[in-house]
Design goal:
- The protein is of the alpha/beta class.
- The strands form four sheets. Strands 5, 6, 7, 8, 9, 16 and 17 form a seven-stranded mixed sheet that branches. It has a six-stranded parallel sheet with strand order 12-11-10-13-14-15, with helices on both faces. Strands 1-4 form a two-stranded antiparallel sheet.
- The longest helix has 13 residues.
- Strand 13, helix 6 and strand 14 form a beta-alpha-beta unit.
- The two termini are 22 Å apart.
- It has two domains: 170 residues, Medium-chain alcohol dehydrogenases, catalytic domain (Quinone Oxidoreductase, Chain A, domain 1); 150 residues, Rossmann fold.
Length: 352
């Protein structure tokens, strides 16, 4: 106790230094010496939370790089010596914001640490959890940012129609597995690619994809796509970039749509790969659109109205890869880039 206020140890995962190339566990550091006073600082307009679950997402790698002078302000990078930040599920211990009160369960931006003061900047992306009859960890995935990303990218950007053909790369990941199931619910023909036999089987047998293939076993991606899409692709949900995008461009149908969600093949390259087949966009009048989920959070209630009943009725299923403890977080994050995870990668900080 200090002045009657409770001081707690606050275990944290810190960024050691800016990263170039492929990230390593040693680029991060587990700190067990920090403490935190379990009271908001005087004058704070933020929220003090205890973290339960953290979300490992590929985009985090892009924030470990030294910022470019011309980078948009929305692409914030981490500061060496400070905690990694990302999405998580937490419990409010104290709030200076009228929208939240002590005891509320929330999801949104938080620190890779046991306790976090979420400041006014990130409170706008903090959501109160109203539905607790599903696993709380789902709010790092299907009911959180990845779920909203899948929903916004597929429905808002791609505008699917029944009977269309849909291809999803990195299809067994946190977002891809949901896009595929949304596409099936919309009456589309769905094919996904992944990097292991286990993941391919998951796509077909668990998530209900019509077909799936292991891209590592395909010497010619163009030929593979022509095999699964002899009439071409109406919608491509892009998670990979590089050679995969190049092959897809050759196989898009007239007025097809490409939603660019991520490009995991490029995040660790010091010099990104070029794309050769962009002329296909002209010949086939293909629309390619990048999108950021932050611009679609106003649709969150509409999203919940669709997805919560689908979960409860068994129409949508979700697979998580869960590791225990903050000390496991660096390894879990690195594992995303070697395909070690099966499903949504979650880190348990505390179960209560």
């Amino acid at each position: 106790m200090a002045n009657g206020e409770q001081v707690m140890r606050n275990k944290q995962v810190l960024l050691r230094d800016y990263v170039t190339g492929f990230p390593k566990e040693s680029d991060m550091q587990l700190s067990t010496t920090g403490t935190i006073t379990l009271k908001l600082p005087q004058g704070s307009t933020g929220v003090l939370v205890k973290n339960f679950y953290l979300s490992c997402d590929p985009y985090i790698r892009t924030q470990m790089t030294k910022p470019l002078s011309d980078a948009p302000s929305s692409f914030l990078t981490f500061t060496p010596g400070s905690p990694i930040t990302g999405y998580g599920v937490a419990k409010v211990l104290e709030s200076a914001d009228a929208r939240f009160k002590q005891g509320d369960l929330v999801w949104g931006f938080t620190g890779w640490e046991e306790y976090t003061v979420i400041n006014a900047t990130h409170i706008e992306s903090l959501f109160k959890i109203e539905n607790t009859d599903v696993p709380l960890s789902y709010y790092t995935g299907i009911l959180g940012m990845p779920g909203m990303t899948a929903y916004a990218g597929f429905y808002e950007v791609c505008s699917p129609k029944k009977g269309e053909t849909v291809y999803i790369s990195a299809a067994s990941g946190a977002v891809g597995q949901l896009v595929g199931q949304f596409a099936k619910l919309s009456g589309c023909y769905v094919v996904g690619s992944a990097g292991t036999k286990e993941k391919v089987d998951l796509l077909k047998n668990k998530f209900g994809f019509d077909e799936a293939f292991n891209y590592k076993e395909e010497p010619n991606l163009d030929a593979a796509l022509k095999r699964y899409f002899p009439e071409g692709i109406d919608i491509y949900f892009e998670n990979v970039g590089g050679k995969m995008l190049d092959a897809v461009l050759l196989n898009m149908r007239f007025r097809g749509r490409i939603a660019v969600c991520g490009m995991i093949s490029q995040y660790n390259l010091e010099k990104p790969e070029g794309v050769q087949n962009l002329m296909s966009l002209i010949y086939k009048e293909v629309r390619i659109q990048g999108f950021g989920v932050l611009n679609y959070y106003h649709l969150y209630e509409k999203f919940l109205e669709m997805v919560l009943p689908a979960i409860k009725e068994g129409k949508i299923t979700y697979v998580e890869d869960v590791v225990e403890g903050l000390e496991s977080a660096p390894s879990a994050l690195i594992g995303l880039f070697t395909g070690r995870n099966v499903g949504k990668q979650v880190v348990v900080v505390s179960r209560e």
